[in-house]
Amino acid sequence: MTGELSQYVNKDIFRMVSRIAAERGTRAYVIGGYVRDCFLGRPCSDIDIVVEGGGIDFAMAVGQESGKYVSYFKNFGTAMLHYEGDEIEFVGARKESYRRESRKPIVENGTLRDDQLRRDFTINAMAFSLNADDYGELVDPFGGIRDLAEGIIRTPLDPDTTYSDDPLRMLRAVRFAAKLSTPERQFRIVEVSMASMRRMAPRLQILSRERIAEELNKMLVCARPSLAFKLMDSAGLLPHILPQISALKGVETIDGHGHKDIFSHTLAVLDNVAEADVKAEFEKPDSTGWKGGEANLWLRWAALLHDVGKPAVKRYDPSLGWTFHGHDVVGSKIVPKVFAALKLPLDEKLKLVRKLVWLHMRPIALVDEEVTDSAVRRLLFDAGDDIDDLMLLCGADITSKNPEKVARIKANFELVGRKLVEVEEKDALRNFKNPITGDYIMEVYGIEPCNTIGQIKEYVKNAILDGRIGNDFAEADALMREYAASLGLEPCK
Questions:
Q1: Measured between alpha carbons, how far is 125 from 113 in angstroms, rounded to an integer?
Q2: 294: pLDDT confidence band, cut at 50, 70 and 90?
Q3: Alpha-carbon separation of residue 351 from 244, 337, 391 (angstroms)
Q4: Sheet of strand 28-31: strand arrangement
Q5: Is residue 491 part of a domain?
Q6: Run of H or E residues at 212
Q7: What is the distance of C-alpha 11 from the center of its chain?
Q8: Residue pLDDT, tens place only, 344-354
Q9: What is the 3-state secondary structure (H, E, C) of 61-100?
Q10: Closest CA to 17 of 54, 51, 68, 53
Q11: What are the CA-CA distances from residue 376 to residues 65, 367, 417, 425 (Å)?
């Protein structure tokens, strides 16, 4: 073991595990992602320890010596504790077999090699010994260290067996290729594995939608998420999990005129959003959806789905060329269907993605028009607190092979951004609430709920957004009384 790597195995918890393994006459190893990330020089606080014997009993002994609370899961034969900032999971070495109709394995006790054989990829099957006779030695029966150096994702067993047993591993292969890739070294899935995935793609149907969504979420928060979606497309997985995105592929040509490939454009926008979302981390998801300090997952979902309505509205007009009128509205109606199919949250996160897809053309439309205060007020009114996410998405949506066109549009787009700040500071319209409420109108005029109340509220709202009156109760009240009088209403107080 090199001095550079010794820092990774010279943890107090590892020395403790080593002592307990010797006392109990068993063998223990650090295995999986922690080992892989040591060689990549990446921080990792999730540590898996495999024990030849019972993982739960062993973890209890470690917990007793360390004074740490141990959580255990009998159904899975695993136990977990936290120590000095690390999350450490213990499991007994095991071998697995599968029934074709399920990805849940039949588990038996096994050796370290049995456990390594059940791992998904060679780079995740490497282990460090925690045993006194060979402490810190790398156990790598499948050449994981070589594959890591070459940037290769490869299965220890025949890929047909690996992917048929647990089809989720196909998505994990894609996710690791995207997650581990850097500008200096791009990871690739070996062709024999890609060919196997094309054969095994229909097996994805046995997976729960939640597990698929979890993998997609992890792909989306990679530094370059487009890599994952290109790989899923190449491996034939995309139609089985996101047919709406697969449908964006291809260029139709009529009379020599073709439109841009919507799939490629979508992935460019997705990468632009990821690049702009500079606080992105290679972290596993949490319950809040990564907002504030980490990658904005739901903004990235909006980028992925922003043009999903285009195939349904695509038309060719000889005088205009290809048009996609109304794709923003149609796309916003497709978003809930995508979320429901994947069992993604149907709460405020869905509302955000749907709103961003619905509004994503609005700021860009202002670029080609006179940027009036009225138009900006209405944009602020509709976007509310999500205006910053919307502007980031729209800025990312400016793509063209013509650098002069991009520079011109971006300059105008920056003008829209400055105007938004100016109007917001002056009129305080973010999350605008009409000063005139329905209850107030009923009280002033002594009327029951009716369409006239909505008509008056809309009139006042439009007057504020058009700049005819200020966002002020006194001005709104005066206009309400004037307009109500024109409708034949008389105040009762």
A1: 9
A2: low
A3: 19, 12, 17
A4: 71-73, 78-83, 86-92, 46-51, 28-31, 127-129, 138-139
A5: no
A6: helix 209-220
A7: 33
A8: 999 999 999 99
A9: HHHHHHCCCCEEECCCCEEEEEECCEEEEEEECEEEECCC
A10: 51
A11: 63, 11, 9, 12
Last residue of a domain, one of 150, 171, 187: 150
Of 489, 477, 416, give the one whose Cα is nearest residue 448: 489
* Structural domain containing residue 450: 438-486
Instruction: Please name which of 294, 309, 299, 279 lies closest in space to residue 394, comparing C-alpha atoms.
Output: 299
Q: CA 436 → CA 71, 452, 453, 457, 474, distances in Å?
A: 55, 13, 10, 6, 10
State the Rg of the chain over Cα: 29
pTM of the predicted model as reported, rounded to 2 decimal places = 0.84
91, 119, 150 - which closes a domain: 150
Sort strands 127-129 and 188-189 into parallel, antiparallel or unpaired.
Answer: unpaired
182 is a domain residue: no
Tell me the sheet residues that pair with 30: 49, 128
Amino acid at 218: K
pLDDT tens-place string over residues 97-116: 555 555 565 555 778 888 89
**Does the residue 124 lie in any domain?**
yes
What is the per-residue DSSP string for 423-465?
A: HHHHH--TT---SS-HHHHHHHHT--S-HHHHHHHHHHHHHHH
DSSP secondary structure code for residue 105 in this structure: P
